[in-house]
Request: fold
Amino acid sequence: MEASTKNLPFLDLFIIKEGNHITTDLYSKETDTHQYLDFRSCHPSHTKRNIPYNMARRICTIIPNSTLRKKRLEELKIHLIRQHYPENLIDTGIQQAEKIPISELRKTCQKDTKQNNNVPFVVTHNPRNHNILNTAKRFFPILEQSNNMKNVVNSSQIINSRRQAPCLKKLLTRANFSLNKVKYVKKCGDPRCGTCEYIEEGDSITFKSGKILKVNANLNCKSENLIYCATCPTCGENYIGQTNKLNARVRVHKQQVKDPSVRNTPCSEHFAECGGGKFKVFPFFKMWTENEITRKAQEDYFIKLFNPSLLNRK
Ligand SMILES: [Zn+2]
Ligand SMILES: [Zn+2]
Reply:
């Protein structure tokens, strides 16, 4: 909380008591680094070209005192030059804003009711893209042949609108975290399920090497697209595999362990001999895509990371 008998900040205003009236200045926090949109940033040119004018306009609206206003406009110019705006663009923007009388700037503007009829034509922004709205307009007569579309085309103003393409920040960061939600592996509980008795339940797996991994999703016998670990109940050696359907994969393991004629992997040999025909299955990593190549790459990654002794191939 701030208290003063002389001046106070309020939103972006700094309100100053001067005798028996008040005057206003621009207010920004001490920590404000004034990092306005960089002029080299991939945004529609008109958006960037309007920024100096709009910011100058805000200063002219807020500050009635001409000396103070000049000072703030000069500061604005410094901030914008640092963000790579061309000097003449800044100067023109400032001059345009200065021309408007403060009484005009401070008028409440009435919302244009006609604006409600605007239909945005949305395209993901890319500076190399041709403006396709003009081309699309040539084909509007086709839309007019439909009764539903006729009204949209005729009674509304189609306006160009750009959607920002995903930037690195958007691709690499997330706004919310789910740190506290624990994920579990459970038996499905279906009495006819042949997989339940093989499933090991829990929120994490401890490999023979001692390394621990938490599961990344809630999984059960019926889960799909995942990486799992099969463990020998006698010696605790691990096998890591991938599957698109866990219960079908477990069925194959069971057959191989039970029937020597289809047993062709060191892993099923081990489960038959050392494990006495038994093994435990723990699915631990759910894939975010159904792509088999990605799944196999993920399997390879876990095999390298946890180094299980039982392998599919000799
Ligand atoms: Zn089950
Ligand atoms: Zn064993």
Observations:
- The chain has eleven helices and ten strands.
- The longest strand covers residues 224-231.
